[in-house]
Design brief:
The protein has about 350 residues and is an alpha+beta fold. The protein is built from 15 helices and 9 strands.
């Protein structure tokens, strides 16, 4: 059976009409690939269109401030993608005169570009036969060939990459790569795939052995951690508040937040009043404090769950480095903070 030819033919008949598929311009393909990392197409499409409208060229993106990029990215999560996107745009614009690297190896040198992204861009834009392997591809290959090696093991990563490489169509590598990813996204879905109408059903090992739900195999990951976040929302009678920039490395690096107290469990007002983080802001001045949400909001990230409480600190004093509430939406914040701002500062 000609696996790749069947998929390319299926792709021609069934592919979704997406804007980045109408071009081979590496800027737009790169932009879409970075946005779609860890993001579903439905959500990513809106962000892609916003980025293209605001930054129609790599020079526009390079000349933007990091705050502008992070603000536009707000809500997508995995903010290191946005920081790397901006850094690579500046490198391409200012060091490479706006010219994207023309092959897989050159693309790998861009910050935030790994094997998958470099393979996608190289095959789609430059017709280089480099096989992509993402979650959709793992699922399609593991089921069709009955591969039970864990996809997140060292052995599995190499095995699936080698297998994908042997299958790529050297005449149409870009079409094939997009076909196998699209096939996994809308045909060979994680749950309840439509095997009856699958063009590969007569030779699919998992279907034959009735093990579709068991593949792909994935090793259990590290246990999710629980953290307790307490945000101090300063609100003065003159409508000023305080936001702080997160400078330490982490998922929210360079985003803004209200002053934060981390704790090992849910805490009460007295703990907040006596904490140095609050004392360093208000000093000895009088203030009122109220708990905004009685039950913590639980914000789930891939590796941790944040139990979050917002404490409203009302005062008559204008504090150093405070900002007017009317300007608060100009700052890039984690979606957890952005949602609170929309709810509280209406």
């Amino acid at each position: 059976m000609d696996f790749n030819k069947i998929l390319i033919r299926w792709f021609s008949d069934n592919k979704r009409d997406l804007p980045w598929r109408r071009t081979k311009n590496p800027y737009f393909v790169w932009l879409s690939e970075i946005i779609l990392q860890q993001t579903q197409v439905k959500q990513g499409l809106t962000y892609y269109e916003a980025f293209v409208n605001q930054f129609p060229s790599v020079f526009d993106l390079a000349n933007a401030t990091e705050n502008d990029v992070l603000k536009l990215w707000q809500g997508l999560g995995y903010y290191s993608r946005a920081r790397n996107l901006h850094a690579s745009a500046k490198h391409i614009a200012f060091n490479l005169n706006g010219a994207f690297p023309k092959n897989y190896n050159g693309l790998l040198e861009l910050k935030g570009v790994g094997d998958y992204t470099a393979s996608a861009i190289a095959s789609i834009c430059y017709n280089e036969p480099k096989a992509v392997v993402d979650g959709n591809v793992y699922r399609v290959l593991s089921r069709y060939f009955g591969v039970e090696t864990p996809i997140n093991s060292t052995k599995g990563i190499k095995e699936f990459k080698d297998l994908a490489t042997t299958l790529i169509d050297h005449n149409q590598p870009g079409d094939y790569n997009q076909a196998v990813m699209e096939f996994g996204a809308i045909q060979c879905k994680p749950k309840n795939p439509n095997c009856i109408k699958c063009p590969l059903n007569t030779s699919c090992k998992a279907l034959k052995d009735n093990i579709i739900p068991n593949l792909p195999v994935k090793l259990k990951t590290t246990k999710v951690k629980t953290k307790f976040f307490n945000y101090l929302v300063i609100k003065t009678n003159t409508q000023y508040t305080i936001l702080e920039k997160r400078t330490k490395k982490g998922i929210w690096q360079n985003l803004y937040q209200f002053p934060l107290i981390e704790s090992e469990q849910n805490i009460e007002e007295l703990f907040i009043r006596e904490h140095n983080t609050l004392k360093n802001i208000v000093g000895k001045e009088n203030f009122d404090i109220t708990k905004y949400n009685e039950k913590p909001y639980i914000h789930k990230l891939s590796h941790q769950h944040l139990h979050t409480t917002f404490w409203i600190i009302e005062s008559n004093i204008n504090y150093r480095d405070s900002i007017h509430i009317k300007n608060i939406r100009k700052y890039p914040t984690p979606i957890l903070i952005a949602n609170f701002i929309e709810e509280f500062f209406d």
